[in-house]
C-alpha cells in the first residue's frame, strides 16, 4: 500500500514526509497554480530533493502527441529520468504513452473517469494509473466499481500497473478506494490531517497519558528510571 501527497507545498511535504510512509508526490497544473509564484523547474527540483527516494509525478500540459512528448522530454531532461510523467488518457495521450514506453519513461496515466480508459492504460503498460474518485462521483460514475474492475483486470492479466487513486475530498472516499482494490492513494495533506485529527483519537491519547501519570506519578516511562 502506497501513500502519496497531491501537493507541491514544500512545508507540507517536509512535515508529512516525517509522518506518512510516503511513496511520492503527485502534481498537476492546477496544483502548481495553487502554489502561487514559483519557478517551475526550481520548485520541482526542490520537491524532488526533499522527498529523496520517493517518486515525483509531473504532468504534461500539451494537448497534441508531439506537445506531450516534448513536455515529457523536457521534464526528464531538467529533473531526471526517474521522474514519472503523468499523461491524460485520451487518444493523443495513449499515443504519447506508447512512444514514451518504448523509450522506457516512467509513466502515470491520469484523468481516468472510466473503465475503458483504465483498461487501455493497463494495456499500454503504464506504471501507475490515476482514477479520479471525487470527479467520478460528481458525474454519477460509481468510483468503487470502476476501481474494482481495474484491480480485477490487473489481477487477471498479471499486469504490473498499480492503481493510484486520486481526487479525494474526504477520508471516506480514500477508504472506499482502498476497499475497491486501489494499490496507492494520493491526497491533499489536509485530507490526511482530517483523518488523523479526530477528537476521539486525541481523547484516547490524553486519557491514557493521564491514567499513566496518576498511577505512576511520573510524566514518562523513562521518568521511572531516574
Ligand atoms: O492528481 C490529480 C487529481 O488529484 C485531481 O484532483 O481535486 O482536482 O479533483 P481534483
UniProtKB/TrEMBL annotation:
What keywords are assigned to this protein?
Schiff base
Asked if the keyword Isomerase belongs to this entry, the reply reads: no
Localization = Cytoplasm
Keyword ATP-binding listed? The answer is no
Pfam families referenced in this protein's UniProt entry, alphabetically: TAL_FSA
User: Which InterPro entries does this UniProt record tie to the protein?
Assistant: Aldolase_TIM, TAL/FSA, Transaldolase_AS, TSA/FSA_arc/bac
The protein's matches in PANTHER family, at most eight in alphabetical order, are given as:
TRANSALDOLASE, TRANSALDOLASE C
- What protein name does the entry list? Transaldolase
Which gene codes for it?
A: talA
